[in-house]
Amino acid sequence: MSKKIKGVKTPSRRKFFKAAAVTSAAAAATVAMPNIAFGAPKTLKMQAAWPSGANIFFEMAGDYAKMVSDMSGGELKIDLQPVGSVVKTGEIGQAVSSGVLDMGHWVTAYWYGKNAAASLFGTGPSYGMSSQEVMGWMEYGGGRKLYDETLAKVGFDYIGFFHMPMPAQPFGWFKKNVTKVSDVKGMKYRTVGLATNVLTAMGMVVRQLPGGEIQPAMKTGLIEAAEFNNPTSDSQFGMQDVSKHYHLGSFHQSQEMFEIPVNKKTFNGLSPAHQAILKNAAYAANTDNYFKALVRYSADLSKLMNQHKVNVYQTSDEILAQQLKGWDKVIGDFNKKDPFFKKIVDSQKKYAKRVMKYLLMNQPNYKLAYENEFGSIAKVKI
């Protein structure tokens, strides 16, 4: 039992416990409600190369924007604008570089005119690779360093992220079933990027047209055949109204993906957490968009076949083999006149030679398993 010291006021037992309770409650409140400064969300303006509305590519750009917002708790937002809202499609790269736009959403083939090497980051030769493996080369095979060098060569001042490893693009829409190289020689055809050189080498007369102009051009006879990208996008353009012969699987563009350019000054001004979100949201969208594509593309292919009576074919081996010869010629010509182009090609070949030997030898024949269950793939109704 303590003694009361003269001149010193001792608090009562009741007051002591009351004060302790107040202190404990305040501490608990601090833990439950941390000191967070809630500021206005940071909004970045992005223009896509795709129209709004029922367009799956614009939808995929929106998926990326939503992931950025969700990951940041709403602190980082993307104001997504459709094609042409600020600049023309071909001007997106320069607009992002100059700061007119903070971000873009397109493909590298759209700046092929500035440097043919742009096509090697999405619409180049296969060497056995699909878009999945090209993206692997980008991140783990030295591709990103070469990509950054290519940006510098054309004067683009941005950082780029990639997502959505696209399935091989169809050879496209024709007035009849084409199975021989002679069937397409001299044919007026639409494509973009290095594929223009490849198919020209096959004897086709190639014209580069924006997506929205393809169907009208085929309707008026400006072109006789065309490709865009996939069954969903193609049907949204109304290609089934101008052709009933659709050829899937081609080497002209067998491994493309979206490019998301981000203005360097804008990116460097963000917090490390927000920088990481822009990067990692692309990885998240990469997976989600691919899953969505498989479901939607197959469903829309079924509609084309069953509702619109479109005849669907696999592109013949004769045409595919000639496409590969076309690639050999085009790549050989560019390699001779552009050492930097050759440097990128050599890097891709080195990666493909090792990685694809493993992958192709390790993969079982999935077609064999499919046909074991469902019968001949050419006769299966979906």
Any overview of this molecule?
By secondary structure, the protein is an alpha/beta fold. The chain folds into two domains: 42-166 and 256-294, D-Maltodextrin-Binding Protein, domain 2 (3-Layer(aba) Sandwich), CATH 3.40.190.170; 169-252 and 311-337, D-Maltodextrin-Binding Protein, domain 2 (3-Layer(aba) Sandwich), CATH 3.40.190. The chain is 49% helix and 12% strand. It is built from 14 helices and eleven strands. A three-stranded parallel beta sheet has the order 2-1-3. It has a three-stranded mixed beta sheet with strand order 5-9-11, with no helix packed on it. The radius of gyration is 28 Å and the shape is globular. The termini are far apart.
Strand content: 5-15%
CATH architecture of the largest domain: 3-Layer(aba) Sandwich
Mean pLDDT, all residues: 90
Report the total helices: 14
Distance from N terminus to C terminus (CA atoms, Å) equals: 90 Å
Shape: globular
Output the strand order for the largest sheet. 2-1-3
Quaternary class: single chain
- The CATH homologous superfamily of the largest domain is termed Bacterial extracellular solute-binding protein, family 7
Question: How many structural domains are formed by the residues?
Answer: 2
Largest sheet: 3 strands, parallel
Q: Low-confidence runs (pLDDT<50, min 5 residues)?
A: 1-38
User: How many beta strands in the DSSP annotation?
Assistant: 11
Roughly what percent helix?
40-55%
State Rg: 28 Å
